[in-house]
């Protein structure tokens, strides 16, 4: 699923001592000072999309769940996608390529972003605390090499990531072979499930990368949604926001 690289890990100063006082116990000057204080800013997160649709772009449910959890966490989100042609276009009713049809990754990703999207070429690490890459085969076909955690394995040698289990287990983990691709790139694969949401995300503290299996597992949608929530919470913790 989503490989997350926290780009900046600065921490804010401690909150004002006034926050520990009950409203009724504050003096007028204390209340005035509290009202003047600026609210704690949320993490600045870049969400990188790779099209629109699981078989040739971004997995839509994963992207939506990430946006929901980032909103709940008070993050400031900016959405990006590369302005390049898709590798190919899939007819999702048939699971087969649509012959003679071509689409643009940025244009397709704008469907998920409701039009508020920026060319990936303009993304600057200095402007964001973290970046999140939802899964979907577009991460393989339009961004780099394979399902999203493999992006991290390709870029960061020795990184720890998860795509769930390493055996198919009767079809419950149909993409389990991805774990071997991760190991082949010199990364460490960590086995994780999705049913217990707070255990579904793996955190590589050294590299500041958080991953979760999501749709790598054939399971109920709410389990996937909760696992993504665990990942997003860990990302926001690493950002220090």
TrEMBL record:
Superkingdom per UniProt: Eukaryota
Entry's Gene Ontology cellular component terms: mitochondrion
Isomerase recorded as keyword: no
Cleavable signal peptide: 1-17
Database matches in InterPro entries: Class_I_gatase-like
Keywords associated with the record: Signal
Cross-referenced PANTHER family: ES1 PROTEIN HOMOLOG, MITOCHONDRIAL, GLUTAMINE AMIDOTRANSFERASE-LIKE CLASS 1 DOMAIN-CONTAINING PROTEIN 3, MITOCHONDRIAL-RELATED
Name of the featured protein: Glutamine amidotransferase class 1 domain containing 3
Native organism: Aotus nancymaae
Upper taxonomic lineage: Eukaryota, Metazoa, Chordata, Craniata, Vertebrata
């Amino acid at each position: 699923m989503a490989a997350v690289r926290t780009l900046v890990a600065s921490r804010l100063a401690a909150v004002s001592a006034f926050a520990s006082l009950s409203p009724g116990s504050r003096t007028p000057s204390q209340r005035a000072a509290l009202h003047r204080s600026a609210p704690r800013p949320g993490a600045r997160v870049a969400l990188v999309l790779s099209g629109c649709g699981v078989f040739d772009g971004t997995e839509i449910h994963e992207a939506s769940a990430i946006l929901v959890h980032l909103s709940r966490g008070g993050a400031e989100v900016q959405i990006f996608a590369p302005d390049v042609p898709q590798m190919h276009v899939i007819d999702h009713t048939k699971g087969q390529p649509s012959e003679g049809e071509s689409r643009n990754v940025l244009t397709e990703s704008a469907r998920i972003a409701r039009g508020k999207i920026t060319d990936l070429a303009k993304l600057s690490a200095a402007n964001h605390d973290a970046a999140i890459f939802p899964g979907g085969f577009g991460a393989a076909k339009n961004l780099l090499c394979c399902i999203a955690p493999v992006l991290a394995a390709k870029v960061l040698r020795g990184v720890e990531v998860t795509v769930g289990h390493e055996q198919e287990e009767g079809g419950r983990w149909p993409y389990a072979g991805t774990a071997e691709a991760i190991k082949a790139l010199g990364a460490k694969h960590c086995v994780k499930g999705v049913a217990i949401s707070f255990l579904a995300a793996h955190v590589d503290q050294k590299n500041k990368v958080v991953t979760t299996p999501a749709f790598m597992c054939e399971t109920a949608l709410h389990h996937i949604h909760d696992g993504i929530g665990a990942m997003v919470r860990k990302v926001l913790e690493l950002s220090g926001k």
